[in-house]
């Protein structure tokens, strides 16, 4: 059940010839078309591509939220493909963190209760020093007793970031984490994600439409029609924009 990656750097998540087919017959959609990708530990990777290119599907299969039709996915050395639902749930609780566009906080819980919820569900206690570090980094110390409705969008997303980080997951998956934020709050969240990669060695994979958001990543992977068609390392917003324009032309 475990496979060790021997080439290159340690890999936090990996897709090997992954296909995802929805529906059948006339209604069939091939969302992923033989995707191979290795996401290195301690890196910040952005996934970009036109609407419908398979970004969310790739992220959901890598995170064990969705099964693959063919191929294999790994988180760390653990092969997700073929795992039981119970084992998958357990893996998501212990090895994966999520940040969503809509924050997905529980409205009746305080910020602190939201942050600690995944650990409580898993029956784990937070490491006190690490918890304090996370709270200080996201700047939420004086907001811990507030409920989501008493917080701005940017603050709510920082709660979601803290919730993802506090269990020190193998990898954090973020689907359009700044899609609902104004540019200033978005920049705060992106800096925070960037810093958690630099200072804590966190691995982050983020889907985004925004070339500026992608420029915070170490690497950008471009999807089109369910395939990886290009990538950029050390991206600038301009370089990302140029690649995206090329993708749009190719699709015309
Ligand atoms: N549950 C589903 N059932 C049927 N088709 C789906 C489903 N989820 C996604 N798709 C299709 O798969 C393709 C890729 O979707 P998605 O991964 O959401 O793209 P993106 O996130 O890049 O916009 C699209 O054609 C979409 O319509
Ligand atoms: Mg999507």
TrEMBL record:
PROSITE patterns, A to Z: ABC_TRANSPORTER_2
One Pfam short name: ABC_tran
GO molecular function ontology, one term from the record: ATP binding
Annotated SUPFAM superfamilies: P-loop containing nucleoside triphosphate hydrolases
Keywords from the named record: ATP-binding, Nucleotide-binding, Transport
Keyword ATP-binding: yes
Xref: CDD domains: ABC_MJ0796_LolCDE_FtsE
The keyword Transport is assigned to this record: yes
Taxonomic superkingdom: Bacteria
Sequence ranges assigned to domain ABC transporter in this UniProt record: 13-250
Protein name: ABC transporter ATP-binding protein
């Amino acid at each position: 059940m475990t496979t060790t990656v021997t080439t290159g750097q340690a890999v936090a998540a990996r897709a090997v010839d992954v296909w995802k087919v929805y529906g059948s017959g006339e209604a069939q959609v091939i969302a992923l078309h033989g995707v191979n990708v290795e996401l290195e530990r301690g890196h910040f990777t952005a996934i970009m591509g036109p609407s419908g290119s398979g970004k969310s599907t790739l992220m959901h299969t890598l995170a064990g939220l969705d099964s693959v039709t063919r191929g294999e996915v790994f988180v760390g050395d653990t092969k997700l493909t073929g795992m039981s639902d119970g084992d998958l749930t357990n893996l998501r609780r212990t090895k994966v963190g999520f940040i969503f566009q809509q924050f997905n906080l529980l409205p009746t819980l305080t910020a602190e209760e939201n942050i600690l919820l995944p650990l409580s569900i898993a029956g784990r206690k937070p490491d006190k020093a690490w918890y304090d570090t996370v709270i200080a980094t996201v700047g939420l110390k004086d907001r811990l007793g507030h409920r989501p409705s008493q917080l701005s969008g940017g603050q709510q997303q920082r709660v979601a970031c803290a919730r993802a980080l506090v269990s020190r997951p193998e990898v954090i998956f973020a689907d359009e984490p700044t899609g609902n934020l104004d540019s200033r709050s978005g920049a705060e969240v992106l800096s925070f994600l960037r810093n958690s990669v630099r200072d804590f060695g966190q691995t982050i994979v983020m889907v985004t439409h925004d070339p500026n958001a992608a420029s915070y990543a170490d690497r950008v992977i471009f999807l089109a029609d369910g395939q990886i068609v290009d990538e950029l390392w050390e991206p600038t917003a301009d370089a990302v924009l140029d690649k995206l324009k090329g993708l749009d032309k190719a699709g015309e």
